[in-house]
Amino acid sequence: xxxxxxxxxxxxxxxxxxxxxxxxxxxxxxxxxxVVGYLMLPIAVVILFSFNKPAGxxxxxxxxxxxxxxxxxxxxxxxxxxxxTSLQVGLLATVVATALGTLMAMxxxxxxxxGRGATxxxxxxxxxxxxxxxxxxxxxxxxxxxxVFQLGFWTIFIAHVMFIVSFVVVTxxxxxxxxxxxxxxAAMDLGANEVTxxxxxxxxxxxxxxxxxxxxxFALSIDDFVITYLTAxxxxxxxxxxxxxxxxxxxxxxxxxxxxxFLVAIALAxxxxxxxxxxxxxxxxxxx
Amino acid sequence: xxxxLHRHRGATPYLLLAPGVLWLAIFFLIPLAFLGYExxxxxxxxxxxxxxxxxxxxxxxxxxxxQFVRSFLYAGIATLACLVLAYPLVYWIAFRAGPWRNxxxxxxxxxxxxxxxxxxxxxxxILADQGPVVxxxxxxxxxDSDGRLLATTFAVVSGITYNFFPFMALPIYVSLEQIDPxxxxxxxxxxxxxxxAFLRVTLPLSAPGIVAGTLLTFxxxxxxxxxxxxxxxxxxxxxxxxIQSKFLESLDYPGAASLSFVLMGLILAMLLIYARIVGSExxxx
Lengths: 288, 285
Known about the structure:
heterodimer, A: 288 residues, MetI-like fold, 0% strand, disordered N terminus, B: mainly alpha, two-stranded antiparallel ribbon, globular
């Protein structure tokens, strides 16, 4: 400080640089918080308007606060069936896709075999194809094989498993790559066969990745509109229901359901985070 | 089963793969073949015939060139907007947010937890003619007194930007988070200014994230039709809107199928060009 004071010119430059550094640092923070605000704005609007009492058919302008929409969440014809269908498809497709995807990830990471590159491409392709093309191609398959496939619940299920599998493979693969094979070799050395080793060693180790993949898959399934819309026939999931009703009038109950899904997802995410923090602490205590 | 696996070790990977690969073959590859077959048919619903009707493709490109151009233009602008919005945010989260990192990551993925269609409809509330945003812009004369945001290109592009933002932000965050802070210290020790350290160390090391984010944003954005349908007018129609309405409204399956193929082909072509520019190792990770 004293040397700076001795040379006023340097002091000024130093102060200028310091101010500039402070501005720069805070500019980035302000920018970041503004972007976060932008991300949160529509979510806040969705939740806020679930408590609105719209004057006309459209729920676009704020009128009056009410709990009625939450109490009578299923007062709109068809909304309850749509949600039940969404949940059923989501659960079934997630379970099947997680199983198929985990097995594929194990084969790809653990084994060297002819066709490994081709398998990787086969997994990558659905993720890099626009949804509208995925939905369109499935629809042509179903339309040309009406003897086997009638559009409805099961065609939606088939479509969802198809597009979730790739995401499961990628998620589980990432976990398997950083995985210590010695643990399994140790189990085998101690006389466990491959099935026992898988059940007692491999499965517990990859279970968190499978859970993460399943949660992601369920989120993708319950949110999907494009592929579902093309393969659904007359069956309605929640997004298809919203699409149908959006042209006529959007009742606040749609906001109620979306808010409820959002709150459950956030609760799960926070719960998972807390669980991991606690697990980390326990591990540290054990090693200490 | 254990002894079976033991005796046929070479078969193990194929047994593990079989169910998943079969599913993808039957419900991804074969449908693409059906789409190809459908795209070369002619006739009127429901009596289509396979006639090697290649004119479906040339007609489709000619009639819907505008929508194709618009799709790629909108997707490109939205991708750029996502990059500009996301990079500083995730940079801040990775290097400045400290213990709040995970909370801010949750903020990034939070929009995904609101149903796609509903969060797009929320922009109808925000950009509504009677809403606060339009009111403010009219008061400061950025918009005319009867100017609007809804049903404009701006609304559609900002809807796309919002909806695909996390696809851009997350890969960049992952690549930034992996940067060894010692590299930045080394740069500083070698007298790099913080700008130089950013340009010569941080930015190149986060390039894989930018590449991945760009692809993950651009591809779904180019095929999107929800934002154009809900926030725009037919003047903002993208190729996804055309394909969707041909399949489900005008029942022109061959036309819809050929347009789907053109869209996929164009995206694959762009992917390949992009791969040539940035290097294919970066593309597949």
